[in-house]
Specification:
The longest helix is centred in the first third of the chain and has 46 residues, at about 1-45. The relative contact order is 0.06. The protein is built from eight helices and no strands. By secondary structure, it is mostly helical. The chain folds into two domains: about 35-110, no CATH class; about 115-180.
């Protein structure tokens, strides 16, 4: 009798735990879906007029993207949301924050498919916004070395050779090459 009661108690406890865990998983999925819906709505509002980026909405969007990624770090959308946050930060001229966001992605998701694009983006920020040509070249070198099969390689090699040069250096060489060809 006691053995049967113990066995039944274990079964009931196991079923209760199963129901409890199932309900928690459903709640987490619903929360994630609700947050994605909120992100999509704000994103549509933000992109309604892409010529002028509303700073308040942009900051709100960045916070929501980061909130999602922190809350659901293993969700496939987290990397994409963090990358979008960095793009918005650059659009708001928050370039140091943008670099921090890109570095966070690089450290947290080193095997992500966005890595080649991230390195090119990071190089552009270092080159164009900070005039830190060594860091920009280092990003391009990392892209070229670590992702040789990337479709970005031809552009990355060309861009790497232009980093730190003024337009006269770049286009002057092109003009003299064209003149020499004639």
């Amino acid at each position: 009798m006691k053995l049967t009661l113990l066995r039944n108690s274990i079964i009931v406890l196991g079923l209760s735990m199963f129901v409890f865990v199932s309900c928690q998983q459903t709640d987490v999925k619903k929360e994630a879906k609700d947050l994605r819906t909120e992100l999509n709505t704000l994103q549509k509002e933000l992109m309604a007029n892409p010529q002028t980026l509303d700073a308040v909405k942009g900051d709100s969007m960045v916070l929501l993207y980061k909130k999602y990624a922190i809350k659901y770090p293993n969700d496939s959308m987290s990397v994409e949301y963090l990358f979008r946050a960095a793009e918005i930060q650059m659009g708001l001229n928050k370039n140091e924050e943008c670099i921090k966001s890109l570095s966070y992605i690089q450290k947290t998701y080193p095997n992500s498919k966005v890595m080649p694009m991230l390195l090119q983006f990071k190089a552009f920020i270092y080159d164009d916004k900070f005039n830190d040509f060594d860091k920009a070249r280092a990003c391009m070198d990392e892209l070229i070395e670590n992702y040789p099969e990337s479709e970005l390689i031809p552009n990355a090699k060309a861009y790497r050779n232009m980093i730190g040069k003024n337009p006269e250096e770049i286009f002057g060489k092109m003009d003299s090459t064209a003149t020499n060809a004639n």
